[in-house]
Amino acid sequence: MLTSNEIKISNYLPIVLDVGGQLFKTTNLTLDKYPDSLLAAYASRWKIEDKDNPIFFDRSPELFKYILEYMRTESLPTPDRFEKNNWIFGYTTGE
Questions:
Q1: Which of 70, 68, 66 has the alpha carbon at shortest distance from 85?
Q2: 63 is in which domain, residue-wise?
């Protein structure tokens, strides 16, 4: 059983995600903001001993970086490239 100190520390330990071949590091604290998400479910089983075996997702790292940034900041980044590809999601910019 973990002590409250160990639980607090474990929230800040890095979790390594391999998304489409690109490595991302984050923490349980970030992923637990959305406890019903697939990312939180995988992160809850990840241990520091797994650092050489990142959690793999066969998804686009180019898009995932925006998802992770949103999870960190709770603010949606809107870079030009993302807006130019809104047609993929059925959105229009009114242009």
A1: 66
A2: 8-89
